[in-house]
Amino acid sequence: MSSQTDVAPAEPIHLTDADEYADIVSRYDAVLVDFYADWCGPCQMMEPTIEALAEDTAAAVLKVDVDQFQGVASQHDVQGIPTLLVYADGEQAERMVGAQTGDTLETTITGYTA
């Protein structure tokens, strides 16, 4: 396996297989993981911000539906949503619970992509 990381896509990656989680968070230099649910008001409110971060930052954005992937959410101790995790070089570096502003998220992510 090459140590070169991929260029982050300009739109969020939606987790489709629990086994892909570790691969995705280690594939990019920085990854923002958004644990969300379709019925969650704050999650819906943050959706445009999350999409903008995928487009405007060097970080990949991984969206994990907690209803679909309860096991993944449980492994990462997600108890409230939205929960946002930032990975740098495959390691979890930040955890934020609850709705965050775009500025807060961008500043946090940029610290790991600069």
Topology readout:
Blueprint: E1 13-14, H1 21-27, E2 30-36, H2 41-56, E3 60-65, H3 70-75, E4 83-88, E5 91-97, H4 102-113
Total of DSSP H or I helical runs spanning 4+ residues: 4
CATH secondary-structure class: Alpha Beta
Radius of gyration: 13 Å
Helix content estimate: 25-40%
| Number of discrete domains | 1
Q: Any idea what the CATH architecture is? A: 3-Layer(aba) Sandwich
Helix-and-strand structural type: alpha/beta
Largest sheet: 5 strands, mixed
> How many β-strand stretches?
5
The end-to-end distance, rounded to whole angstroms, is 24 Å
What do you see in this structure?
The chain has a single domain (13-98), classed as Glutaredoxin (3-Layer(aba) Sandwich). 36% of the residues lie in helices and 25% in strands. With 114 residues, the protein is of the alpha/beta class. The two termini are 24 Å apart. A 5-stranded mixed sheet has the order 1-3-2-4-5, sandwiched between helices.
